[in-house]
Design a protein that fits this description.
alpha+beta; globular; Aminopeptidase; 7-stranded mixed beta sheet; 4 helices; binds coenzyme A; 161 residues
């Protein structure tokens, strides 16, 4: 499916939140602790942008928002990507690829990198997706209160333009 990926405007944020909630709701019975994505609101997305982060949306030709992703530049030059979300009705059609490409393009244009991401170990399909997109494991960590690792950190170096 063809989508345009663009920075979210303030008017896009309610639908971006709705897409994030619909996407991450599909993980509810697979991960513990629950994803903090479910607590995302218009205000928390707007605050990310105010702090220098980016919120990108994937828009279908008719205007419908079918995906979203957030990116946060860090002091060391890396860019932390999270909230990668595609509407459950539109998965498997390249929208996540388009969203991650946009984050990589943004980082490349600003001379930033690598892109970093955290993926739950209980979601091997997501780990496989990120490996497919060129991300490599850099470590594992446990959420607070968990004795064993619950998530994998992955990173992708970004070449200069
Ligand atoms: C995970 C999610 C973002 C994927 O979105 P999607 O639009 O279906 O993904 P895409 O179709 O763009 O796939 C991206 C690429 O990964 C590949 N891929 C997908 N699943 C894969 C798997 N299990 N193993 C290997 N490659 C995989 C696709 O073939 C595609 O590769 P290509 O561009 O070379 O053809 C979506 O299912 C979602 O929102 N899930 C719920 C929320 C979530 O899990 N977010 C991520 C948290 S880490």
């Amino acid at each position: 499916m063809t989508v345009d990926v663009e920075p979210a405007r303030p008017a896009d944020l309610p639908e971006a939140v709705a897409v994030i909630h619909r996407a991450f709701a599909t993980l509810a019975d697979r991960i513990d602790p629950p994803s903090s994505a479910m607590t995302e609101t218009v205000d928390t997305l707007a605050a990310r942008v105010e702090r220098g982060g980016r919120v990108f949306i994937a828009r279908r030709q008719d205007g419908l928002i079918l995906g979203a992703v957030c990116a946060a530049p860090k002091p060391d030059g890396s860019v932390y990507m999270d909230r990668l979300a595609v509407d459950p009705s539109a998965c498997g059609q390249g929208i996540a690829r388009a969203l991650t490409d946009a984050v990589e393009d943004f980082a490349r244009a600003d001379g930033l990198g690598p892109i970093t991401v955290g993926v739950r170990l209980r979601l091997p399909d997501n780990i496989a997706l990120f490996r497919h997109l060129g991300y490599v494991e850099t470590g594992r960590k446990a959420h607070p209160g968990f004795a064993e690792p619950t998530s994998m950190d992955l990173a992708k170096a970004i070449g200069r333009p």
